[in-house]
Amino acid sequence: MSGDTPRQINMGRGVHGLGATMLSDTDLKVTDLYNVRHERGLAPKPGVVISMPIPTAILVDAGGTVRWIDQAENYQRRSHPDRVLAALDANLPAAG
Fold this sequence. Notes:
The chain is of the alpha+beta class and 96 residues long.
């Protein structure tokens, strides 16, 4: 999820090497639904609050059960791929 517009997301794909599908959530309704709003450390000047989703990886199984959540402390950091792969291995049955 991103607070950016679809156009901003598409423009950033090449710059940031995005390969994942991104959801534009400019009004933060989905962000609030998952309770992952981040409102700290982003102000361009004192007294200004900028809201955005906290970088969060959520692993949901086929039945809709949340199996694992990893949430960043720093909005510029994401879950390391090795950490996500380990969560997949630990929480989901092997396809077969």
